[in-house]
C-alpha cells in the first residue's frame, strides 16, 4: 500500500506530542513553576496544547501551564528549563502550575520526512502495564489520547507480557486506543502481529473511528429479585463485535464463565466475558453485564411513644417506607394514634411484575382514664375522672375525698367520718 504515514512508537501515552505539528517530547514536572525566563504568554486548554505553542517558537525551551485556580489555562513560554537554572534563579513550587520542558527530539528538523501534512498520523503504543505516576496519570493518559483521536490520529494499543489478561489494564488500553485498535499478545508471539500493525497503520486518511470494529453496547438495567426469592433467570445474546460489512470475520470465540442463555443469577453484579478471535490476527473482548439487586423495604419500626396526660391520642410523623427497587423518595406522613400497637402497610407494584408490601410498626404507650391518658404517679383516676394525687386522699366513685375527715359510703356517697353511713 502506497499511502504515506508517520509512525511513532511510544511507551507512555502521557508524553504523546500532537503529530503533524510537534517534533519534540516533553518532560512533565507537576507543581513546578519557572519564573524570570518568560518569553511570551498564550492561552491553552491543556498541557498538550501549551506544549504545542512552545514547539512553534524556535527559542522556546519550556512552558509553565496553569492547571487550576484564577487564570487557569495560562501558558507561559520560557527560554530556559528547570534543569538549566539554579534553585535561586526562579524555581518555585506552585500546586496550580505544571512545568514542561523539551526532553527529546523525535523527528529532527533536518529530516526530509518530518512533518508531512499529507501523511496520516499513526501512534503505536506498546506497553506491558497500566500508566504509572501521579494519582491522575490514568485519567490524563486517556484524556490526552482523546485529544489526539479527535484530531484524526490513529492510536494502535499493543498490550504485551504477563499483565495482558488483567481486566483493568485491558480496559485502560482500550480507552486509550482508537476503537477496535487494542491488541493483546504474549512476548514470544510479538512478531505474529506485524502484519496486523502494518495493515492498521495504512488505513486511508483521515482515520475514521466509525469504520473500526466495536463491541455492541450491552449493560442491562438493574434486575430486582422478588421478595423471598434469591435467584432470577436472565437471557442475553452473544455480543459479537460490530464491524464494517465484510471487513473482519469472527473465526472463533471463548467465554467465561461458561454460561449459556438463559441462566440463573443471584444478587450482585455479573459479567460474562467473551474473547473473539478475528481475521487479520486480531482479538477483541466484549462483555455482557447484569446487575441483580434485592428488592427490600427499609426498616421503619419506630420507637414507642407515650400519650400525654389528658390526651386521648398522640400525633406521630414518619417517613413512608419505599422499597429499594422503586428508587423513589420517601415522603413524610402523619397520623393521630391511640394507645396500643399499630402497623401501617404500604403496597407497591414493581414494573407490573410483582407486589411489595412495606410496613411501619409503632407502639403507643400510656395508662388511660375514660379514654384519656393520665400519670399514675401524680394523678388518680376515679371512675373515669382524673384528680391530682394528694396525700391522704382516695377515690369514692368519681370523687376524691380526705380519708382523715370523711368516709366513702354505699352508693359512692361521701359523709363526715363522725356520721354514720346511710343504709337502704
From TrEMBL:
Origin: domain of life: Eukaryota
A Pfam cross-reference name: VWA
InterPro entries per the UniProt record, alphabetical: VWF_A, vWFA_dom_sf
Protein known as: Uncharacterized protein
Native source organism of the sequence: Paramuricea clavata
Amino acid at each position: 500500500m502506497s499511502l504515506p504515514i508517520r509512525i511513532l512508537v511510544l511507551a507512555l501515552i502521557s508524553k504523546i506530542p500532537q503529530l503533524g505539528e510537534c517534533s519534540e517530547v516533553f518532560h512533565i514536572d507537576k507543581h513546578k513553576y519557572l519564573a524570570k525566563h518568560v518569553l511570551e504568554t498564550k492561552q491553552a486548554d491543556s498541557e498538550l496544547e501549551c506544549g504545542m505553542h512552545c514547539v512553534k517558537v524556535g527559542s522556546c525551551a519550556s512552558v509553565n501551564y496553569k492547571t487550576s485556580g484564577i487564570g487557569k489555562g495560562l501558558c507561559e513560554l520560557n527560554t530556559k528549563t528547570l534543569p538549566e537554572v539554579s534553585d535561586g534563579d526562579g524555581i518555585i513550587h506552585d500546586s496550580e502550575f505544571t512545568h514542561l520542558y523539551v526532553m527529546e527530539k523525535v523527528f529532527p528538523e533536518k529530516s526530509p520526512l518530518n512533518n508531512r501534512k499529507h501523511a496520516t498520523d499513526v501512534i503505536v503504543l506498546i506497553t506491558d502495564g497500566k500508566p504509572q505516576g501521579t494519582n491522575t496519570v490514568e485519567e490524563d493518559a486517556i484524556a490526552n489520547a482523546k485529544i489526539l483521536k479527535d484530531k484524526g490520529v490513529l492510536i494502535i494499543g499493543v498490550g504485551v507480557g504477563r499483565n495482558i489478561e488483567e481486566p483493568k489494564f485491558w480496559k485502560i488500553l482500550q480507552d486509550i486506543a482508537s476503537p477496535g485498535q487494542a491488541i493483546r499478545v504474549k512476548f514470544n508471539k510479538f512478531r505474529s502481529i506485524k502484519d496486523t500493525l502494518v495493515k492498521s497503520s495504512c488505513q486511508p486518511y483521515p482515520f475514521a473511528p466509525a469504520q473500526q470494529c466495536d463491541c455492541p453496547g450491552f449493560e442491562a438495567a438493574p434486575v430486582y429479585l422478588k421478595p423471598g426469592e434469591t435467584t432470577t433467570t436472565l437471557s442475553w445474546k452473544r455480543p459479537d463485535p460490530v464491524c464494517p460489512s465484510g471487513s473482519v470475520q469472527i473465526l472463533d470465540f471463548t467465554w467465561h464463565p461458561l454460561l449459556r442463555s438463559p441462566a440463573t443469577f443471584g444478587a450482585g453484579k455479573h459479567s460474562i466475558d467473551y474473547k473473539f478471535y478475528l481475521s487479520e490476527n486480531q482479538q477483541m473482548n466484549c462483555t455482557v453485564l447484569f446487575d441483580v439487586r434485592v428488592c427490600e423495604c427499609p426498616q421503619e419500626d419506630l420507637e414507642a411513644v407515650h400519650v400525654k396526660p389528658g390526651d386521648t391520642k398522640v400525633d406521630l410523623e414518619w417517613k413512608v417506607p419505599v422499597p429499594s427497587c422503586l428508587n423513589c423518595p420517601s415522603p413524610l406522613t402523619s397520623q393521630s394514634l391511640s394507645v396500643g400497637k399499630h402497623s401501617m402497610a404500604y403496597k407497591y407494584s414493581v414494573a407490573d411484575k410483582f407486589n411489595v408490601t412495606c410496613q411501619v410498626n409503632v407502639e403507643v404507650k400510656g395508662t388511660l382514664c375514660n379514654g384519656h391518658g393520665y400519670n399514675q404517679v401524680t394523678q388518680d383516676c376515679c371512675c373515669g375522672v382524673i384528680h391530682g394525687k394528694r396525700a391522704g386522699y382516695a377515690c369514692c366513685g368519681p370523687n376524691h375525698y380526705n380519708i382523715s375527715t370523711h368516709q366513702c359510703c354505699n352508693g359512692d356517697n361521701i359523709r363526715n367520718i363522725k356520721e354514720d353511713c346511710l343504709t337502704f
